[in-house]
């Protein structure tokens, strides 16, 4: 794997590909999760990202069981998230101080560790004063239960707001933001990337394969039964359109010229975008994960990168552009 990278302005050093665990405990059984962890560590990775809502806590429990079974804690940069909640089957947020600190304690119990290296606020909560949310961050870091903190799924102005609040009160600075970012989803380049760069936050892309679309597996269509699924329509359907299809064809063309898989091209592109620390790659099976890990050492030539940039270029207009 390529050289490690520093997260923001922190002392955290992570591999340039992170391991996502959103399927653990649901689509991925424990034995398969163990196999994924082994393959990832063998490839030189160290960043494992999870959340309290992944599998209703089962993803964290899987990691905790691995640690109890002998996985060295110091082999991991362990990241988790709190604030996202499910209310009557729908995603919501609770970034109140009491909820966040209780959620952190519950995560530590499931993870079977006394601290996490990165604790991320999983969702913006407009009902809770930001001062209260950030007080929970300060408390968690002061207690030693959290080494560093970041945010996840925050808009550009959210990101700048929390960074400035921490700076003004001389609190522990936030070090990262986790956001969806891929060749088919470049919206963060308008405001999130500039905010992150201005305030010294490293970027962790989630869904770097465009929710699976950039693997090329839907080039010839989607099986009827799967296409009818409610989750598929909501999660993958947003990236099944003519624009994305054109991007996928360019990815496939570049991959063919290089003799690699489209997955490798897509990951190498996002891995080396400005501000990016490590794309988070998740998989149902260890075989799928190994396909992603094959991108660890791929470096795209400027000509290939330019073609990918051009076909996927996002719309940028007022007020991002000067007038």
UniProtKB/TrEMBL annotation:
| Location of the NADP-dependent oxidoreductase domain | 16-311
Q: Name one Pfam family in it.
A: Aldo_ket_red
Domain of life of the source: Bacteria
PANTHER family recorded: NADH-SPECIFIC METHYLGLYOXAL REDUCTASE-RELATED, OXIDOREDUCTASE
Instruction: Tell me the protein's name.
Output: Oxidoreductase
In its UniProt entry, the species of origin is given as Amycolatopsis oliviviridis
């Amino acid at each position: 794997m390529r050289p490690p990278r520093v997260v923001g302005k922190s002392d955290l050093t992570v591999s340039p590909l992170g391991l996502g665990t959103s399927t653990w405990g649901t689509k991925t059984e424990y034995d398969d999760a163990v196999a994924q962890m082994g393959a990832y560590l063998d490839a030189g990775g160290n960043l494992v990202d999870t959340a309290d809502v992944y599998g209703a806590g089962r993803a964290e429990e899987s990691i905790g069981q691995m640690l109890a079974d002998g996985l060295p804690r110091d082999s991991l940069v362990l990241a988790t998230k709190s604030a996202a909640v499910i209310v009557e089957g729908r995603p919501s947020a609770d970034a109140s101080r009491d909820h966040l600190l209780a959620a952190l304690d519950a995560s530590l119990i499931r993870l079977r560790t006394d601290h996490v290296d990165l604790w991320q606020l999983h969702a913006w909560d407009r009902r809770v004063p930001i001062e209260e949310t950030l007080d929970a961050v300060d408390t968690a870091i002061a207690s030693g239960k959290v080494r560093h903190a970041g945010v996840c799924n925050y808009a550009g102005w959210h990101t700048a707001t929390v960074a400035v609040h921490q700076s003004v009160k001389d609190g522990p600075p936030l070090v990262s933001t986790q956001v969806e970012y891929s060749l088919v989803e470049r919206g963060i380049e308008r405001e999130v990337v500039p905010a992150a760069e201005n305030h010294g936050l490293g970027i962790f892309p989630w869904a770097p394969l465009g929710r699976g679309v950039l693997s090329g597996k839907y080039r010839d269509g989607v099986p009827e039964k799967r296409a009818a699924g409610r989750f598929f329509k909501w999660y993958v359907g947003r990236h099944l359109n003519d624009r994305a299809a054109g991007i996928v064809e360019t990815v496939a063309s570049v991959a063919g010229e290089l003799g690699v898989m489209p997955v490798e091209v897509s990951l190498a592109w996002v891995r080396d975008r400005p501000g990016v620390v490590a794309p988070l790659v998740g998989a149902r099976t260890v075989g799928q994960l190994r396909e992603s890990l094959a991108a660890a050492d791929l470096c795209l030539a400027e000509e290939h990168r330019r073609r990918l940039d051009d076909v996927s270029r996002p719309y940028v207009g007022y007020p991002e552009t000067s007038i």
